[in-house]
TrEMBL record:
Keywords: Transferase. This is Glycosyltransferase family 4 protein. GO terms for molecular function: transferase activity.
Amino acid sequence: MLHILYFVHDLADPAVRRRVLMLQAGGALVTLAGFRRDDNALAAIHGVEPIELGKTQDAQFAQRVAAVARSAAKLRGALRSVARPDVIIGRNLEMLTLANRAKSVFGGDMPIVYECLDIHRLLLRNDVVGGALRSAERHFGSQAALLITSSPAFVERYFRPRSGLRLPVMLLENKVLALEPAASAVAPVVRPPAAGKPWKIGWFGALRCRKSLTLLDEFSRRMDGRFEIVLRGRPAYSEFDDFDGFVRKAPFMHFAGAYKNPEDLQAIYNDVQFSWAIDFFEEGLNSSWLLPNRLYEGGLYGAVPIAIEGTETARFLASRKIGLTLDAADATQLAALLGGMDEQRYVAAFDAVASQDRKQWMIDRADCHGLVQRLASLTRANEQIAEIKALSQLHRNRGGLQ
């Protein structure tokens, strides 16, 4: 059984839980280690007791760097009860540094995988800070055998032209984990609102975008209750002045709390007609390049996605002729896009989404096995390189004896 040591930035992140479940479903044994930003019982993984390396905070990069440095100095002790892994994965740049440190702790030649699913804005700065971080990424990434990322735009806009990394790339999109056959067999059901009830737009997942929150509130007020905004997931409170207070004062918006991914997805998406697949958190940079979880979740369960022009999400939808695209980020444009919504137009948009191949929205057990096999192939490649080096050394030694 392939043993994977997985370093993560946030043990409370539901996406971390999903990745561990994928690796386990693919037949791997996973040792999870990382930092915790808050408590989230819904992100717990049955049978996995993580190695907690410390506590970090959202939007506090310097604090996180210091925490990682302290952890690196004590990593040998933290890993003393861990068996030698076959592969080490570092989820983002901070964790890549710990993956390198762990490799030296174990004293082996196990491959390192760099998993990067967001390009932090500091990496994109054209100043000393940005240059230093890219230099660090090149240094630690030089020891990696594979880069895992979730959007082709990350490769096209950052990794190839700017990062300086020259690694094989595995594109692993943020698809829904569907391990049970029944999950792929259930077709989405069209769900126009009952007479007199509002249309619902769901904004689910990592809620970190002030601009989206303000825009959706203004739009729903303009529509005077014809549209309701449903929020679910984990608000990044550091990004809002007062998230809870803002939502309480919004007449046509409510926060319905956290949910378990993937177990609760069908129920929460069946409660809405549209999915907000827009993020202005790092507008023009990471937010324009990513393909968010909610794009795949909504697609699988028939929620019509709303994207904004000029983003990778909009290109994804346009290539499939599905979804709705907003021309500009303001409530007037959104009202023009959705204000005339009726059942006939909604059903046509729903049918376009529902007719897509469901495999493009989901990852099944076969995909999980494929992921683990790809990781296992890295260890075989390392073994072959070691054998070649040993044979070369043997030939050199024989030559010296003649």
